[in-house]
Amino acid sequence: MTVATNTTMEPKTLNLSKPRVLNVAIVGFGTVGSSVARILSENCPAGLRLTHICNRNIERKRVDWLPGTIRWTDEISDVLSSDVDIVVELIGGLEPAGGWVRKALRAGKSVVTANKQLIARHGTELVRLARENHQHLAFGASVAGGVPVISGLQEGLAADELVRLCGILNGTCNYILTRIESAGISFEAALREAQQLGFAEADPSEDIEGHDARAKLTILARAGLRVSADPLDIHARSIAPIEPVDFEYAKLLNCTIRQISRAEKTSGKLFASVQPTLVHESSPLAAVEGGQNLVMSTGKFGGETIFAGHGAGGNPTAVAVVSDLIAIVRSRQINGVALDESTTSALPVSADFTSRHYLRFTVKDEPGIIAALALIFCRSGINIDSVFQKSGYPKSKLPFVITLEPCSNSLVEESLRHIAELNFHVQPCLSLPILD
Amino acid sequence: MTVATNTTMEPKTLNLSKPRVLNVAIVGFGTVGSSVARILSENCPAGLRLTHICNRNIERKRVDWLPGTIRWTDEISDVLSSDVDIVVELIGGLEPAGGWVRKALRAGKSVVTANKQLIARHGTELVRLARENHQHLAFGASVAGGVPVISGLQEGLAADELVRLCGILNGTCNYILTRIESAGISFEAALREAQQLGFAEADPSEDIEGHDARAKLTILARAGLRVSADPLDIHARSIAPIEPVDFEYAKLLNCTIRQISRAEKTSGKLFASVQPTLVHESSPLAAVEGGQNLVMSTGKFGGETIFAGHGAGGNPTAVAVVSDLIAIVRSRQINGVALDESTTSALPVSADFTSRHYLRFTVKDEPGIIAALALIFCRSGINIDSVFQKSGYPKSKLPFVITLEPCSNSLVEESLRHIAELNFHVQPCLSLPILD
Fold it and tell me: In whole angstroms, what is the distance from residue A41 CA to residue B152 CA?
């Protein structure tokens, strides 16, 4: 018999009987911060103690349901110079959050963050900095709120070789699209409704244009596909051009329309995009309602795996934050592996997926339109799959739909540039991929 | 500025630049074992090396695609006396697997297992033994094959207080039920079909009676709800009485029928059962196809989270096994926490859920049947919700359905005992809960 003596196993030198409690500071006391404080006060996991809360105009933020021992402060320097072990960064945005995270790591504090923009843009650098300072940097809350997809990809599916990720990562867009579909209202009306209900910001462009989802997709691609990419290199398209008529046509194809974020790793290239996309009614993606998020991963060995749940909200996001805190207590660097430069590769990014396409034209009707379009597609070697025309629209502004057999997006775009020069258009053509 | 010095953080004493490679033995070289070997040979994660394969009649099992350095043996003692660090137990069943796992732990080897019966029955004892011997015991593959639900519950949702688990955990039952539904064939015919396709064993009772799902539910309840239960205390009902007519009636209720495993923690009691159940068409449970598995967890803070994917099969299960191996390399005791006696509680188990009920009677038609039933339910204070009778059946063997408003299962069972004494029955009444 042998006795395992390797040092990567549970080290015998740890004082397991009495681990030191780790002091936690919450920086940014909004909805999520408040939920994190509530979990840490009502249900505090062993080994953690909330000691500091930092926010601008802190007096405005003080609550009576937290112990009197907590230090409330306006000044990040109070946190940085304290005996806090872990800083929970919940202020969002690149600055000052980025500077504070760097200072915290250099001051020998671990960091848990829900800041998707910061991790998407500077994750590799920040993880390196954390390693250099022997600290943890965890960001499970930065994607899909309470859905444990980062740990799922990095730990539960660690042994698989993931090749594709596909998901619904932005609840605002999902709410708006489902409202256009169910109520038959315009994009503008659905957006106003979402703003009134607090589901969309006063300036909604970050969500609508796909920039929020793009940052999340960047983080998922690193965690799951082990590819590092700049979010600004990922093609993002607005959901604003989607009209109720598109859902009517999609239904004829047994599809619905969702904002789909997807990334696919091939030899030497990362295909990635965020855009409104047709998905089949039977797909789990079609069933995602309101603010729910869903991520499907496809692995070489394990096939398809789905993670779904609440993508936003104070409590679900706080669960992700506190789960990261617990992981640090359990002494795990849960997110370091995928961001380690040695295990991620930087690949050129392309949005040129091959797929079927949905093209909705809005024209002033006249003879020969289909013939003219067919000729242009034919010259590019693109096959038309079907032509749909619903009745009940005026000839002066007639929508109709052409679907194309699978071909590359770039080929379609090239044809559409020629088609745009024809003179029967009342609106620009709307082109959407169909996810099969 | 302070420097974190707590010992639960990354210990500075580890030789991180050159960790020792861990030797792995596969014990049981069937479908899963062969897939594990393939991943370890084609795609071997850093820090692991396959050194031994142990199986009865080993010569019959030898393959040419593994390196010649691997030691093939019939004898578990060869593995136990070797320098193997981790034993992967894939033989299944309580014995000899249980004895071998105990010997491996005592010999200073960690164990990774996919053995649901062993973990469901003896998990608490085995985890204690692993701790006493400073070894890891990981069993992520014991539930839902490649779906990373154990790590999801224990790590990704560590901060939440989970109150309910509900899922489809047995692919054989799910295949049979979906075939009765789609092809309108009898249970017996669907079972034969599943056996011919290799989806069901020659003796299918373990699956059909719910014993397989019950073992998995026990493990999930420990990991997610932190309740230890004996699987034999969990009420399991066969899917054998389900007939095509039940799917027709279920459809009138906008439902379908699935084998549902569910557990709910209340103060002082664990409600748990495995049984055929009506689920609404819009539920993610209704969309689970063939051999897929799905687990929904409900947390006090994070709400509902879904994990879904391939529940069985060599490759998905092997992904779970090798992910556990990687977790050990990463020096994590990933499954120990929930099974630690100090964090799980033993609760009495009840199957007495309160829910709506579906009752299908098969009678020789005569006047006064509904009146007789209504009187009995009325005496127990149970309200009838609706009565359905599809046309086209002979009066001598007439199926009809009553649905009841929410009430406890025990109350329904008591009424059904009185009802069984009435003399118009051609078959026993089929009673199923309706999951709302």
Answer: 23
* Interface residue B135 vs chain A (CB under 8 A): yes
Query: Tell me, what's the pLDDT at B19?
Result: 59
Torsion on CA atoms B313, B315, B316, B320, rounded to nearest 10: 120
First-to-last C-alpha distance (Å) of chain A: 55
In the numeric block, the tokens 């430069």 are attached to A341
Are B411 and B352 in contact, with CB atoms under 8 Å apart?
Answer: no
- How many distinct helices (H) and strands (E) make up chain A? 14, 19
Which of the residues A109, A116, A216, A265 is marked catalytic?
A: A216
Report the alpha-carbon distance of residue A111 to residue A113 in Å, rounded: 6
Between A10 and A77, residue with greater pLDDT: A77
The pLDDT of A400-414, averaged and rounded, is: 94
Rounded to an integer, what distance in angstroms lies between the CA atom of residue B108 and that of residue B98?
16
**Type of residue found at A127:** V
Examine the pLDDT at A337 and tell me if it is beyond 50: no
What would the two tokens of residue B361 be?
């009677």
A6 and B19 within 8 Å at the Cβ level: the answer is yes
Quick one: pLDDT at residue A343?
Answer: 61
Cβ under 8 Å to A: B residues 17-46: 19-20, 22, 35, 39, 43, 45
Residue A334 pLDDT: 40
Q: What is the ipTM of this complex?
A: 0.84
Length of chain A: 436
Alpha helices (H) in A202-291, listed in sequence order: 205-208, 211-220, 244-252
- Quote the tokens at residue A386: 């079907």
Find where tokens 């099974």 sit: B339
Question: Which of B125, B89, B96 has its CA nearest to residue B110?
Answer: B89
Q: Are B263 and B225 in contact (CB under 8 A)?
A: yes
pTM across the whole model: 0.87
Inter-chain touch B146–A303, beta carbons under 8 Å: yes
Average pLDDT rounded to a whole number, residues A357-373: 93
On chain B, the residues whose CB falls within 8 A of the CB of A330 are 8, 332-333, 337
Q: Is A116 a catalytic residue?
A: no
Q: Do B82 and A156 touch (CB under 8 A)?
A: no
Residue B388: CB atoms within 10 A of its CB come to: 15
Query: How much is the pLDDT for A346?
Result: 75
Q: Determine the residue of chain A that is closest to B45 in CA distance.
A: A159
Give every CB contact of residue A403 below 8 A, 6+ residues apart in sequence: A253, A356, A357, A358, A359, A384, A385, A386, A388, A434
Task: Decide if B243 contacts B180 (C-beta within 8 A).
Answer: yes
Q: Closest Cα partner for B154 from B303, B336, B363?
A: B336
CA distance A166 to B148: 17
Q: Name the DSSP letter for residue B201.
A: -
Interchain CB distance below 8 Å, B303 and A321: no
Q: Which residues of chain B fall below pLDDT 50?
A: 1-18, 332-342
Count of CB atoms within 10 A of residue A315's CB?
A: 22
Instruction: Read off the pLDDT of residues B208-257 as tens digits, 9 standing for 90 and up.
Output: 999 999 999 999 999 999 898 999 999 999 999 999 999 999 999 999 99
